[in-house]
Design brief:
single chain; about 160 residues; alpha/beta; Helix Hairpins; Chitinase A, domain 3; 2 domains; five-stranded mixed beta sheet; two-stranded parallel sheet; 7 strands; about 40% helix; about 25% strand
């Protein structure tokens, strides 16, 4: 299987979530299921069915996180420089609106556009890879064509 690129912070965040699920969420849901069973008839016990559903979600998420972390390739952006690549923090200016945006290009499992973490597989990130400061970038987005100029590239 292919390795999954990830920043150190992204890897750490997923490990923290996994630890929380295993040490807090899983024991709590097992206790909730046991309590719901004590209420008798399971066929009409909404608490029991809700707890089982939540348990299923938790177990699925644990399996997913273990799989992702097992394939993770932690990349340290601070050891990089040059053109835009994985881990770069890029400041762009929209050539139509003059609005500045700053994003860090990260792995798929740590991406969060509201926090400025851009998925490496997104159209914008794919268009930025290999570009340098001062370059103009044309991006085809679901909202139409966008033009950006690369103002700054930082590896931290």
């Amino acid at each position: 299987m292919d390795k999954i690129p990830m920043t150190r912070k992204g890897h750490s965040d997923l490990e923290t979530e996994l630890k929380q699920l295993k040490s807090v969420e899983r024991p709590a849901i097992i206790k909730a299921i046991a309590e719901a069973r004590e209420h008798g008839d399971l066929s009409e016990n909404a608490e029991y069915h809700s707890a089982r559903e939540k348990q299923s979600f938790i177990e699925g998420r644990i399996k997913e996180l273990e799989g992702v972390l097992g394939l993770a390739e932690v990349i340290d952006p601070s050891k990089m420089s040059g053109t835009i690549k994985f881990g770069a923090t890029v400041t762009l200016v929209d050539e139509d609106t003059d609005e500045e945006k700053t994003w860090q290009i990260v792995g798929e499992h740590e991406a969060n556009i509201e926090k400025g973490l851009l998925n490496i597989k997104s159209p914008i990130a794919r268009a930025l890879i290999g570009k340098d400061e001062g370059d103009s970038v044309e991006v085809r987005t679901p909202g139409g064509e966008k033009s950006y100029e690369v103002l700054k590239i930082v590896y931290a």
